[in-house]
Amino acid sequence: MRIIIVDDDKPAIEALSDALVNFPGVEIVGMALTGEEGLRLVEKENPDVLFLDVEMPDMSGLDFLAMMNSECTDCYVVICTAFDNYMLSAFRQKAFDFLLKPVDNDELEIVMQRLTEKRENAATKQNNCIRKPEEDTFIFYTNSMDFRMVKIKDIGIFQYNHEMRSWEMIVAGSKTPIRLKRNMTNDKILAIDTCFRQVNQKFIININYLFEVKDNVCCFYPPFENIRYVKVGSFFRRRFIEQFNKF
């Protein structure tokens, strides 16, 4: 298991490194004290696992994660920080696990066991299955004959157009919303992937792009950062919070 550690606290890096090398099959292939250095290191070494701090001088760990996700880096990320208020945002950015500093050895052992099992299961699945190309691509019908191929990760928002009585989706790289067939319902949209969450009667969002809810308005990561009109309804707000309280 090839591991990189990115943290602006050198003693914390050394302590974590000393703990990790006690696990069988672990190789520390790099350490970085800044986010920029860490990104270069990840690109160069292509590690299996990254242990990542959140508060660094040049960028936050969450920004680091967003950049990694945009480059489709295939790496399990464990957030390692002294601040538990970053937990929800970390999981939204597809972090694999979360450790609080100072790192408890028992908690670290649990994380390493989960990582080992996850990698073994992935290897078994790859050996036993033939993966379809572009597995995350979905066909959306725009009328009775035409359809549009869209990657799920490129969808930011579904919004209901009352005049046309149909749902539309806002997709990265598309200048205008893509209108869907009238038989597309909110239940069908929510069933496409667990990343889609309804925040009011009119809007369904991709939770992976949600940065925060401020004054009851959703704020999104790029490329949807200019969308500031999606409000969270009171009923959906309660359900939304309940869904993430487990974190």
Describe the structure.
- With 247 residues, this protein is α/β, with parallel strands linked by helices.
- Helices cover 32% and strands 27% of the residues.
- It has seven helices and 14 strands.
- It has helices at residues 10-20, 35-45, 61-70, 87-92, 105-128, 186-190, 234-244, and strands at 2-6, 27-32, 49-52, 76-81, 97-100, 137-141, 147-151, 155-161, 166-171, 178-179, 196-198, 203-206, 210-214, 217-220.
- Strands 2-1-3-4-5 form a five-stranded parallel beta sheet, with helices on both faces.
- A hairpin with a 5-residue loop joins strand 6 (137-141) and strand 7 (147-151).
- It is elongated and about 60 Å long.
- The two termini are 26 Å apart.
- Residues 126-134 have low confidence and may be disordered.
Give, in spatial order, the strands making up the sheet with the most strands. Answer: 2-1-3-4-5
Number of strands: 14
DSSP helical segment count: 7
Shape: elongated
Give the ordered list of helices and strands. Answer: EHEHEHEHEHEEEEEHEEEEH
Portion of residues within helices = 25-40%
Percent of residues in beta strands = 25-35%
Give the helix/strand class.
alpha/beta
Biggest sheet features: 5 strands, parallel
Give average pLDDT, whole number.
83
Labels describing this entry:
247 residues, alpha/beta, five-stranded parallel β-sheet, five-stranded antiparallel β-sheet, elongated
In short:
With 247 residues, the protein is α/β, with parallel strands linked by helices. 32% of the residues lie in helices and 27% in strands. A 5-stranded parallel β-sheet has the order 2-1-3-4-5, sandwiched between helices. A 5-stranded antiparallel β-sheet has the order 10-9-8-12-11.
